[in-house]
Amino acid sequence: MSTTTHDLPETALWPVETTAEARVRGYWGSVLRRLLRDKATMIFGLVLLAIIALAIAAPLLAPFDPYKDSIIGRLKPFGWRGHPLGTDELGRDLLSRLIYGARSSLLMGTVPVAIAAVIGGSLGVIAGFAGGRVGSVIMRVMDVFYAFPSVLLAVAISGAMGGGMLNGIIALSMVFTPAMCRVAETTTSQVRSLDFIEAARATGAGPLTIIRHHVLGNVLGPVFIYASSLVSVAILLGSGLSFLGLGVKPPEPDWGLMLSTLRQSLYVNPLICALPGAAIFITSVCFNLVSDGIRGAMDVRL
Amino acid sequence: MSAALELDESDRGGAAQPLLIARGLVKHFRVPGAKGRGEGKVRAVDGISFSVFKGETLGIVGESGCGKSTLARLLMHLIRIDAGELIFDGEGVEAPDGITIAELRRQMQMVFQDSASSLNPRMPIRDSVAFGPYVHGQPQAEARRIARDMLLKVGLNPDMLGPRYPHELSGGQKQRVNIARALAIRPRMVILDEAVSALDKSVEAQVLNLLRALRRSFNLTYLFISHDLNVVQYISDRVLVMYLGQVVELGPVDEIFARPKHPYTTALLGSRSSMDPSRRIEEPPITGDPPSPIDPPSGCRFRTRCPHAEAICAEQMPALSAWSDRTSHVAACHLHDPLSGHSRAGTMGSA
Q1: Is the ipTM of this complex over 0.90?
Q2: What domains can be seen in chain A, in order of their start residue?
Q3: What's the pTM value of the predicted model, to 2 decimals?
Q4: CB within 8 Å of A144: residues ≥ 6 apart
Q5: Is B343 near chain A, with CB under 8 Å?
Q6: Cβ-contact B230, B218 below 8 angstroms
């Protein structure tokens, strides 16, 4: 190759390259395959599915009416008069209340995170892709929210708006939006600096087309992973709000609220008082481990 | 395939009109000042002028950091031009009666150095190739068909490799995809920014031959940027040598490699490793790093490393000129200007 006279014969028809392995698997296909191989994630995923199924089918599965109280049957032990997990401080069936309580806990865990992922994610993609002043303005506003500890912020917002589940969800959404925004912004600005974005610009594509075809696909993964890890935090925070009397109102069954009211009976029947806490713990652990598993399965060195 | 034989309708300026003319291109990047000296400027591209003729390959060589890649991005308008003008086939880019940047990009495409990062990792490669035609208004099915066709043209089986993701392909295959992507909207000119530099030597040769074949069958004009002199010599018709954001020498490839005029070109050629033991290099022909483009030397920018530097070199910036001999081979050096006042002026070029 030292001089131009050493020309290799040129042909326009090149031997077309193929690969030995003809099987083609898409990205999501390979993620699913890795997930199915991951035993721990599958087991915790099944537990999680069972909890979700319990919450959905609560009226069918709960053995008693969760609101039916009894003066004589308060804080009774496991198995008392057909109550499998005993009764609470007002004599209501604890198992039924736990099953119904899964509804509000899962709602508090997923809805705020989903809202935050959409709002924060979009803002983050805009900030990351636009950069410059637009990006700075968005991110500095988010930083203001960031400056407060999340528990304090949630308590302050739902305290200002009053209690109730809806206000609790709004408060938690506002708490998680800056974090989601930051994740989306960081990923977007990383992606934006890669050559394929330049190549797309050189092709003549406008910013919206580039975001739709080249940015979103690369940002969705990290945003989804982060969101799934936030669900357990949201369940805990939501329970915390209910515990403080700012989320779900009594007599609605909610794990956080149950923990709060049963707390006073800790010395009467400690086992029953610990049950809502155990439910919160198991659910958030499941969400955490499953999101870890998904993170692992999605993390391909590309 | 038959495009080369027919009259190209998009060829508006005629055969003699250079496809691309750059006049006095300037790009300065602002950098925060060090040691409280205030804001500085990196003179990445500092007044570059050249023409690219239809159907030729113009090679651009120079050390890392001399502004080669900045020049490529300037030509594509991926970064804003500070000063200077660009004329594509006789029509000024962004000029009042000229063509828009969008129209320029339809006719000029670019292949980047990093074959991996210039493909979307979450997109099957056939979609990456189809993206250009799709953006330019082709329906999805037609864009797919063009992508298939282009993948075949660069020697990749569209049925087996098309649905794959970039990480499943080798470096050479990825760079072929990038070439297919650049050619999918049928540009007339392709800028190859270190397009083969990251590849293995054997793969590099394959891709270079592919590029030559494609140039012929699509009637392309190449701007080939590389730091590898052997590669540039192999593929180029003319060569432009850059140093610290300026052109120091420009001429036909055989002329430049056989009779370099500028001391920097001589040094670059001397620094090539050779397989021939009788051409052993006794001492390093060029030493040290290039000076900072933030505060370039006065006069000739190469004088700090030039063995022939004299007082005049610090005072006056040499003009790019053919001086006494062939008009197509120009260099910016006082040694070739009989009137420059350099003590050895006129003695070097005649050798």
Answers
A1: no
A2: 40-66+76-298 (1.10.3720.10)
A3: 0.79
A4: none
A5: no
A6: no
